Each structure stands twice: as C-alpha cells, then as structure tokens.
Amino acid sequence: MRLPHLFAATALGISTVVATPVAAAAATTCTAPAPGPWTVDPASAAAPAGAGRPAGPATAARVRAGIRNFVACINAGDPAKPDDLAANPAATLFTVHFIATFMHQDSYAAVPRVLGGLRIDRMRTLDVTAYPDGSFSTEGIYLAYGHKLAHERWNWWPDPDGHLKVNKLEPLAPPVPPDAVTLGIEVGDYYYRPDTPVVRAPGGKVVLRFHQAGAQRHEAILFRLPDGATAADLFNGKLTPGQATTIGQDNGSDVMSLVALRPGTYTLISFEPGPDGRPLALHGLTTQFRVC
To answer: What's the pTM?
Structure first.
C-alpha cells in the first residue's frame, strides 16, 4: 500500500467531499469511526515503543478480530465514489500519523483515492506482538486487487473508540510462486525500461523486479486499460478512472508478485509529480508490456 494514486486526484480532477462513514454490509460486519480531529497523537507517532512480547490468546483474538473488521471495511469500499467517505468506511481506520507520513495526504477525504479500489482477500495474520505503549504489530500475507501477493508488517494503534487503526507499515518480501516468470524493469527518473515487451506466462504468474536507476526511488502502479488505451488517456479525458483496473502497486519492496494475469496489455504508471507539477507519467515514467 505504498503511495498508490497519491496524485491521481489532481491529475484526473477528482474533487473531495467529507462525509460521515457508515457501517457497510460485508461477510464480516464493518464498523468504522467518524472522522476525528486532524491532529497527530505523539504516542502513535512514536509507536511501537518498548520491547514487544507475543500477545496472549485473548489479546491476539481481539487483534485478529480488529484486523478482520479492517479488511471488511476495505472490501466494502466503492472505488466509483472516491470522494465519498460514507462509501469508503476504511478511510478512518488509518491514524492521522499514517495518512500524513505514509500516504502523504492531509485529510481523511484523500484516503479512498490513495487506496485506489484496493480489495484484500485470503488474509493470513501471523505473529501478534504486543507493546507496552498499547500498540500491536502483525505480519499479514494476502491477495491485493485479486492479483498481487503481498507480505507486510503492520503496526496497529488502539483508538479510544475501540477500533484498531493502521499506524505504520513495513513491506516484507512477498511470496513468489516457483513457476512465476520474472520481468526486470529498470526505473529511471523519467522512464520504466522492461527487459522485454512480451512476457510469456501461460499460467498468469509474473514477478516484476524493479531496479531503481534514477536519482530517487519512484513508485509503480500497474493497470489494465481498455484495448488500445495508453497512460496519457488517463489524463487527457479519453478514459475515466473507472475504466482503469488496478492490478497491483509497488509498496516499497521493489518486487511485485502477481497471479491470475489474463493475456493482454498492462500499463505501468507513476502519479508522482514532476518538476512542473504534472504527473511523471506525462514526462515518460510509464510503459506497457504484454502477457501471453
């Protein structure tokens, strides 16, 4: 969940409207608090503090229940309404510290766009660790967007209203299927350069390995666009956000492990701003490759 769609709102002209989140129907009931004061809790910013210890059975059960609620709220989100918090209840299950420092946003209203229609399936929660400051950490292995295998360490902050909120995130090495095909991609300041334009992966399992060659590290978001469309069409009005299917996004590990890719063309895009404020995709930080 590293920096996805951070600049999509500006690039695509999406407005933001603050609304009150409500519980949404899901396999596990989703409950989320209304937006609170926009202030960083110094304790949450410092968390986790002190030596962690394995949580006892009762505590671990409560943490796992909180994570199930978080996943239910993520999956209840409506990507067609990115400016509506009521339609995206997970937005308030992130601490202000996380939104400000990891997502680089300054409001709850921006969170749905950052999530970019994220869906979490097959979540496995490992190693619940409790800290003296009241926070917890877990490892999570899950399927994101229906295609990306993710492995991350999460820090959870207990909010006074009883909800667990995501406070920090550390990317870990994702699972890689043994029969996956690897595609190396060099990432410069203004280009992605794949090893080959065509990936032969009849099983639909592809691992993107990014090699950062520019002056700074850059994000990479993978989309499936309509046939014949390019990244520029996301910015020139030829495509709406709903026509771009998110397949996966780089979370800081420089490895994107993907499964169930259909044959077709895939597009890498960066929404980070260039020197003139326009997305780097419009400066060349985009590429396409085919899977067959």
So the answer is: 0.85
